[in-house]
Design brief:
The protein has 474 residues and is α/β, with parallel strands linked by helices. Helix content is 36%, strand content 16%. It is built from 19 helices and 15 strands. A 5-stranded parallel sheet has the order 3-2-1-4-15, sandwiched between helices. The chain is globular, with a radius of gyration of 23 Å. The chain starts with 16 loop residues before the first helix and ends with a helix.
Length: 474
């Protein structure tokens, strides 16, 4: 260990920008064994590991880096897997530059952070190939069942832990495949779909029942599910897109980011997607403008490049330093030919029936807002126009009206529309109904959803265990 002085930081090599823009494969291969061990050996083995502190899962990062450096990969995987149900997924899509790697002590010293995410991906992919990934360790049957609404990362993480506790677990989801945004929101160049599907298959083999194409409020009310199970978890995520208030916003060719990404991912599965096949959600040959600066916007611009767009521009109201998306993703997009139009916002959209352009205005940064970032304000006299055949709105997501959709008006919500839960138990206003993930905290990171799934499983187990004890005592 402690080789960071003599060993330079090195990430897995990326394929050339022109080559990788031709397909939806991940842009970099994983390390070879000697390289992974060498990069892991750069860890300084801090007494207070800031990387672990800033990881939402508090993964034992220095410990499995040491095991990797020593060539003890199976032990490294076991330790990594002990705190995370999806380490190879987090290794691919976590914004390490804002979390573990961004808080690496040797990064502060100017030597470049340990490449934690790439090593995590390498270790777990090796575990799958070598057969070290074991089946779900199902606990002794308790005679109680749990219903989970939402098959995204929070729901899947909770399902695995609850199955290990010995509960019968049923997962309900509106889509035809489990995984939520892991499956339909994140493009393959960041997360190839077989990586998600093998995790879901493992859960199904562990006895977790998946009920797909199932909508609460249509196929069953929330009250009916409460009667069917001993406890419920709501882990639906947030899917309602934030809108743009501007003239012309309703024109054809102005689409929602999630509709666009879902269509692309479905085509990757080989599905028939009419809105893609008729060109509505296909960027091929079009001048594309994406509005937004988060990770979803980066997914959209890079997808448009791969679909063969004539040009791709990203319109964002703040500057690069104040954008919410990953700086690595921004750099990847620039390499692939995306043009960023910083400090700009749409004022109106041209076109009678179909969009032909975006009328935008320059912005400037004023005083910091509640998030600590400097708030954008209009820069007078900064109007300009962009040609656009396809405009993708990627301004983030808000909660759907779950009390109405679920037929459960007594389900408490906050003023932001997220579900209100008890901070100690993660239970909603309904007895035995818990909630976790983005539907509680708002749009956030996959790693936080996994953490919430882990935590809520423990709370649900404690509640059901107490109920079972009470019933036996009676």
């Amino acid at each position: 260990m402690l080789k960071f002085v003599g060993t330079a930081q090195a990430y897995p090599g990326k394929r050339g920008a022109e080559l990788r823009a031709e397909d939806f494969r991940e842009i970099a291969d994983r390390y070879a064994v000697p390289t992974a061990e060498e990069q892991a050996s750069r860890c300084s083995q801090c007494g207070v590991p800031y990387c672990s502190v800033h990881c939402p899962l508090h993964n034992h990062i220095p410990d499995w880096l040491r095991l990797t450096a020593e060539g003890r990969l199976r032990e490294a995987y076991a330790l990594s897997n002990s705190t995370s149900t999806m380490p190879e997924i987090c290794g691919r899509i976590c914004p390490q530059d804002r979390l573990c790697e961004g808080n690496c002590v040797i990064e502060f010293s100017g030597h470049g952070a340990v490449t934690i995410g790439s090593v995590e991906k390498f270790v777990t992919d090796t575990a799958w190939e070598e057969g070290w990934v074991e089946p779900v360790a199902v606990g002794p049957a308790r005679g109680q069942s749990v219903g989970i609404v939402g098959a995204g990362p929070a729901g899947l993480a909770a399902a695995e832990y609850l199955r290990e506790y010995g509960y019968e677990v049923h997962v309900y989801d509106r889509h035809d495949r489990a995984g939520g945004l892991l499956t339909y929101g994140i493009p393959g160049f960041k997360l190839e779909k077989h990586v998600v599907m093998r995790r879901i298959e493992r859960l199904a083999q562990g006895g977790i029942s998946f009920h797909m194409d199932f909508e609460v409020g249509r196929d069953a009310s929330l009250d009916a599910l409460r009667k069917r199970h001993d406890s419920l978890l709501i882990a639906t995520g947030v899917y309602k897109p934030r809108g743009i208030q501007a003239p012309g916003v309703g024109a054809a060719g102005i689409v929602e980011a999630l509709d666009y990404l879902t269509a692309s991912n479905r085509k990757g599965f080989g599905d028939t997607v009419p809105a893609f096949d008729d060109g509505s959600l296909d960027a091929r040959g079009k001048h594309v403008v994406v509005v937004g600066g988060g990770d979803t916007a980066m997914d959209c611009v890079r997808t448009a490049v791969r679909q063969g767009a004539a040009s791709v521009k990203c319109l964002y109201r703040r500057d690069r330093a104040n954008m919410p998306g990953s700086q690595r993703e921004t750099a990847n997009a620039e390499e692939e030919g995306v043009e960023f139009v910083w400090l700009s916002a749409p004022e109106a959209f041209d076109g009678d029936e179909r969009v032909t352009g975006v009328r935008a205005t320059r912005m400037r940064l004023g005083a910091p807002d509640a998030s600590g970032r400097r708030a954008p304000e209009l820069d007078p006299g900064g109007a300009f126009q962009l040609r656009a055949d396809l405009v993708i709105k990627a301004l983030g997501f808000e909660p759907e009206d779950l009390p109405r959709l679920f037929g459960a008006e007594e389900l408490g919500v906050t003023r932001w529309g997220t579900l209100r839960t008890d901070g100690r138990t993660m239970m909603t206003s309904l007895d035995g109904v818990f909630a976790a993930g983005d539907i509680v905290r708002g749009a956030s990171l996959v790693v936080w959803a996994i953490r919430d799934g882990r935590d809520v499983a423990a709370h649900m187990h404690a509640w059901m265990h107490a109920r079972a004890d009470a019933a036996r005592a009676a």
